[in-house]
Amino acid sequence: MLSRPSLLLCEKKKEERKVKANDREYNEKFQYASNCIMTSKYNMLTFLPVNLFEQFQEVANTYFLFLLILQLIPQISSLSWFTTIVPLALVLSITAVKDATDDYFRHRSDNQVNNHQSQVLIRGSLQKERWMNVRVGDIIKLENNQSVVADLLLLSSSEPHGLCYIETAELDGETNVKVRQSVSVPAELGDPNNLATFNGEVVCEPPNNKLDRFCGTLYWRDKKYPLTNQNMLLRGCVLRNTEACYGLVIFAGPDTKLMQNSGRTKFKRTSIDRLMNTLVLWIFGFLVCMGVILAVGNAVWEKEVGSLFQSYLPWDPPVDNFLFSAFLSFWSYVIILNTVVPISLYVSVEVIRLGHSYFINWDRQMFCSQCNTAAEARTTTLNEELGQVEYVFSDKTGTLTQNIMSFNKCSINGQAYGKGTSREKNTLDFTPFNPLANPDFCFYDEKLLESVKVGDWHSHEYFRLLSLCHTVMSEEKSEGELVYKAQSPDEGALVKAARNFGFVFRSRTPGTITTTELGRTVTYSLLAILDFNNIRKRMSVIVRNPAGRIRLYCKGADTVLLERLHPCNQELMTITSDHLNEYAADGLRTLALAYRDVSEEEWEVWSESHRSADKAVDCREDRLAAAYDKIEQDMMLLGATAIEDKLQEGVSETIALLSLANIKVWVLTGDKQETAVNIGYSCKMLTDDMMEVFTISGRTVQSVRQELGSASFPGNGFREGQEGDGVAGDDQLQGSPCPLPPTYLMDNISGEFGLIINGHSLAHALEADMEVEFVSTACACKAVICCRVTPLQKAQVVELIKKHKKAVTLAIGDGANDVSMIKSAHIGVGISGQEGIQAVLASDYSFAQFRFLQRLLLVHGRWSYLRMCRFLCYFFYKNFAFTMVHFWFGFFCGFSAQTVYDQFFITLYNIVYTSLPVLAMGIFDQDVPDHRSLECPKLYEPGQLNLLFNKKEFFICIAQGIYTSVVLFFMPYAVLSNATQSTGVPLADYQTFAATTATALVIVVSVQIALDTGFWTVINHVFVWGSLGLYFTIMLALHSQTLFRIFPKQFHFVGCAQSTLLQPVVWLTIALATAICIVPVLAFRFLKLDLKPQLSDTVRTHLRKPAESRLGARGGSRSGYAFAHQEGFGELITSGKNMRLSSLGLASFASRHSSSWIETLRRKNTPPKEPCSSFL
Length: 1176
Fold this sequence. Notes:
Blueprint: H1 4-15, E1 17-20, H2 24-28, H3 47-55, H4 59-71, H5 82-114, E2 117-122, E3 125-130, E4 139-143, E5 151-157, E6 163-167, H6 169-172, E7 177-181, H7 192-196, E8 201-204, E9 216-220, E10 223-227, E11 232-233, E12 238-240, E13 244-251, H8 257-260, H9 271-304, H10 322-336, H11 344-362, E14 376-377, E15 389-394, E16 406-412, E17 415-417, H12 446-453, H13 457-468, E18 473-478, E19 481-485, H14 489-500, E20 503-509, E21 512-517, E22 520-530, E23 538-544, E24 550-556, H15 558-561, H16 570-585, E25 589-598, H17 600-615, H18 620-631, E26 636-644, H19 651-660, E27 664-668, H20 673-682, E28 692-696, H21 701-711, H22 742-747, E29 753-758, H23 759-765, H24 771-779, E30 783-787, H25 791-805, E31 808-813, H26 819-824, E32 827-831, H27 838-842, E33 845-847, H28 852-890, H29 903-913, H30 915-924, H31 930-935, H32 941-944, H33 951-976, H34 990-1012, H35 1018-1038, H36 1041-1046, H37 1056-1061, H38 1064-1091, H39 1095-1101, H40 1129-1134
Parallel strand pairs: 15-27, 15-31, 27-30, 28-29, 29-30, 31-32, 32-33
Antiparallel strand pairs: 1-8, 2-3, 2-4, 4-13, 5-11, 5-13, 6-7, 6-12, 8-9, 9-10, 14-33, 16-17, 16-26, 18-19, 20-21, 21-22, 22-23, 23-24, 24-25, 25-26
Helix pairs in contact: 3-5, 4-5, 5-11, 9-10, 11-28, 11-30, 13-14, 17-18, 19-28, 28-30, 28-33, 28-34, 29-35, 30-35, 33-34, 33-38, 34-35, 34-38
Keywords: ATP-binding, Magnesium, Membrane, Metal-binding, Nucleotide-binding, Translocase, Transmembrane, Transmembrane helix, Transport
Domain P-type ATPase N-terminal: 19-85
GO molecular function, one term: magnesium ion binding
């Protein structure tokens, strides 16, 4: 028997992946996945069975299939089979066509990706191969700007030191370029001939979804080379500014980390769909009960009364006793009464949803003229769910921001410069002063330019620092045409600012930095780069100028830099701090700048200690940090910078509106914490008005649990009065002596809180034993920002909220790293931005800018929910009113399963007479105009609380329908039983009764929908009154002599309409029935409008009053820290390995004026009564 260590070793070996280069035969025995991507659901063979299986998971479809089978049995069917099979086939066909169309586009997208060409090294030569034919173990050649075909181990590169540069926007949303490096020995194999003989074997971890980790070993020529994530090129990356490189395929197709993070395509249903499935089951149960009642009545009647007629009215075979007659009667009534849920309901629902989708597509106010992109509803099944969203999960980069950044204001030696933001377009013209200035640079303050021109020492030193203290690379395509490639967007903006003010960064080598200062070329010796990291929150450079003087320049967060200043800077520090607070109050990202002179002796001593720390084997990072900290002391303050973080247009206003609508916005981003937090303040998610902003950054389970516990501590305003941490049910919340559960207390806390959590901590918080505490804490906060999260973690957060809060979720993003989150949410929205179209392809809705989300939810979503609810309420009402007449009639026809109406009326009632008016209401109706929906976001709340259509509203509708059926049956029955024509002929015959009841029914339901319609269009008028006129036209035609002569066996009601409708007593009966059905409804609605009006009623009464401004004052100040940098670039530059760096997209964000978040507490027990603030 194997020992436990041996078993673990065997299991570990089983999980390992072995890949041998240039040996397909060896690799194929492991049956690794091919590189073919398949996101579609069907193929030609599986479409019909799989699609039908999915459709018959709908309870209603199964229900109607069962009814169809019953109607094929002649002994129990009193209706023709075509009344069911035609609508059912129509519904299945429409849905199948829609699903086939959706899957066709998935197939087309898959084929487009799979048929991309790549260069594969086969038998010593490069050959063109489709991506789908690439296999694990193949060696691939990539060229500049090509996408990475699979997860590759970098073998060699055209760049020095085996470096290559990649853009990872499709993976983590970041547009800045990252560096990868091959293993040292294979980097010499740049020649394809040498690579053809490469037979190294890689042993590594199995496929997983961790984007930032890779562990493996390369075995080649009896040597081992450790492999890390720095040696990997992942699928979804794009090669930038690297002429060519070669890579070995490690993971292909579905095994790649990109696909491992994509998640599965899920079939999404709305909450109304799920409720309708439940209601269909209830109605079926109600139908069975009615059938049983009528079957029992049939048995009693046949035994007590029917037996007396056996001599001349015998039972039809095979009926031979009253019990079997009752059995057949039961099934006959099931068929007759099935119209309580007609198949036309589902046809109508699909048509209405299609109409709503077209309204979204046609909305000009959601059209982006800049990128010529319109909003698109990529699904037709989720429109009403847009009106019930409670949580929005948003990506940051490219979703909230534009990826543009600008130098906005600054403070130099206590003097503030900069008089506006990027929204003010009066900018300085730098060209006469500086031929190398960037014409796109925007700044307005002549004083700063004059200060530079007159030779102010502090201004010169300020911009000299910005031109030297960075890790930017420069490429001069032609004389004076400079292209900066910044590792972070902040650095790019600062270096561009220095360039425009005359201090132009030109080039660098591992040991020098060359600048042009006011037209004079200066080369500095680069002695050291004191690199940035998230703990230091600063970076420094030590340079020697041409005169031989050594100086340290430092920039960083004011919280860490100001405490390292010389005491003589106290007064200047106070002034600069005030400026920093002002800039932060404007939502700008700030940095403090300082310098110090270093003597030659001090430099020699420090340089030696730095070299020792750099070569240390143990605790290298700690020793380097200590060395950095030693020299970054007693600095002299120069000033501060303020960068405008450009948000997309309208982001702040959109988040404020969503907040007022009780929609919580969570930001889930792969970016650094500082960047995400600054965006949070810029878009007013985080404000200084908040009682506290909690940061969860622990790296162990214990530390995360402790930090979550401290966030929930009563001293911080959370869980005051809580004495236990057990979760109680709803019955314990009222009148219970037990302590209130944490989730209840967290949902009802007062005050505003924010929560910031990073990816490491989130991994622990998502564990089963901690997820409840995390959810309760996070959901009690007004703003939640999750930083450095992986795509899978984004999806897990969404799933967590769906699991514990039972709330409708919406995820919005623009990159492939957001696909998993978009698929997991109830509703996925893709931004068609600069990071590809993967998010759009996986989404349910797409548009170009985040601000369109407010219109999608507050206008289209709210209207769709309102229309669908009104449609369903009316539909159930009219069908119960129609069907229950059969039930009452059964007690007067010997329970013989005879229908009240002729079969043509039964067939046409839902298809012709009442279908178009309810469709018009379901498509066009609205309670308030679109601008009022945006001005009063509280109107959105009924959808979140599910107030307009629920089980209670359903029972009210069927109760009204049953009441109407009682009136429509017994009123004509009572009047016509003793009525006569003017000739003295009695009117108490079956056909007259049927025509009178049918006419009264059509008129009553037409008047009812006229009352229910809140927004009349020409189409509504034509459909409502046209359907009424169409009824009389068809009725007269069906009862005519002409059709009777042609089809005497089909049209039995010959002449009935003409004789019945000419009788005044019939019209009196119809008028009385209509009044008795409608007057109580009118009275109830008038009383409700007067005594308990809904918010929409109040808004309508204020339509002519001008709306007041909703947005409040700006938030308070904070110290905004702008330095979204990555550790390690300083070492890379000084090593000389990074002398060509690819261009980076400069992410920038614009602070927009908007209100701070306004807390709106939900009251789930009562609907909103008070008008919104716009109308008070």
